[in-house]
Design brief:
single chain, mainly beta, 10-stranded antiparallel sheet, 2 helices, globular
């Protein structure tokens, strides 16, 4: 049985976010605001069905998916692009592939101790974020 990701997670580390956003084509002003935010992730997992909400004081983003089922995603609140998205288990990691205008785009989530790790990839940039579970 895969790990349970359900819970509320607060960001504690955010490495290479600026270059990742630049590669996505996000404008200067939005990048500067986003770089100052402290996002919180709220994950609801029911078997292979997930809802991941990313909450900030500036914008919120929500995605819902079922493992292994491709769906059309519009990355509203981020770069507003449409892509074909699929998330699969790789051992205890959630691995997302987003096919669309940007190459090598996606993310990987995994839990290590009380930390939720997230690697966001777009073209040649990788942003590494770490979240701590709130009590």
């Amino acid at each position: 049985m895969p790990v349970n990701y359900s819970g509320t997670w607060d960001i504690v580390s955010n490495v290479n976010f600026e270059k990742y956003m630049t590669t996505l084509g996000i404008d200067f002003a939005t990048r500067k605001i986003a770089a100052m935010l402290k996002p919180q992730k709220v994950i609801k997992q029911e078997g292979d069905c997930f809802t991941i909400r990313t909450l900030t004081t500036f914008r919120n983003y929500e995605c819902s998916f079922k493992i292994g089922e491709e769906y059309q995603e519009v990355t509203q609140g981020m770069d507003n692009r449409s892509c074909q998205t699929v998330v699969n288990w790789e051992n205890d990691k959630l691995v997302c592939v987003q096919r669309g205008e940007k190459k090598n785009r996606g993310w990987t989530h995994w839990i290590q101790g009380d930390e939720l790790h997230l690697e966001l990839t777009c073209e040649n940039q990788v942003c590494k974020q770490i979240f701590k579970r709130t009590l």
